[in-house]
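Worked Example 4.2. Consider the chain below.
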Amino acid sequence: MPMTRKPLPFIAYAVLLAAIAFVPLSAVADARAALDRFLQGLETYSAEFAQTLTDETGFLLQEAGGRFSIGLPDRLRWEVDAPFEQQIVADGEYLWIHDPELRQATVRPVDTALEATPLALLTQPHRLDEHFAVNEEEVTEGWRLVLLPRASDADFTRLEVDLGPDDDLLGLAFMDVFGQRTEIRLQETRRNPVLAPGEFRFTPPPGTDVYRP
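Applying the procedure from the previous section yields the following structure tokens:
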């Protein structure tokens, strides 16, 4: 039975190329340094988030909330609340995407599954330059890095990373194939929290169809 597909509130699929204005190398270096400072000494991280999806005209299509945690490298738990429930779990070896409503889960090896998604920034920051071309855009306060994926089969074509004046991560935004924009603003962030032993494990619930593309 083929897997039923529906729009995913976090992993959006994109082929739209974004035009990035040239910025001085020194500016990019400053923004990259802010990201490096955020990542320095980072082992675990957790946050709540508010998420919006807008179309190419800016019309609001969806609102959702959830929480996520990461363990570097290659471990992540991302949970979106109802009505658009979704779980994404990377356990260091495999990446699971679980849709409770459809009772379906897809599993792929972490290395190949992450490199073409926005999740690569969070779970594989040491491979940033391998995955992305790095640019910057001017913002009122803090820093914004604009990352363009190098992979030809990437799930998106533009990822924005916002960091505050204190170098904390404020949010992410990316574009999908239809010109839609998913924006994720972080709240209740915690740096290097102690996480539960099973935080990055996933066991499909009984009755779940598991696909291994």
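Residues 173 and 183 are 4 Å apart (CA to CA). Helices lie at 25-39, 110-114, 119-123, 128-131. Compare this with Example 4.1 before moving on.
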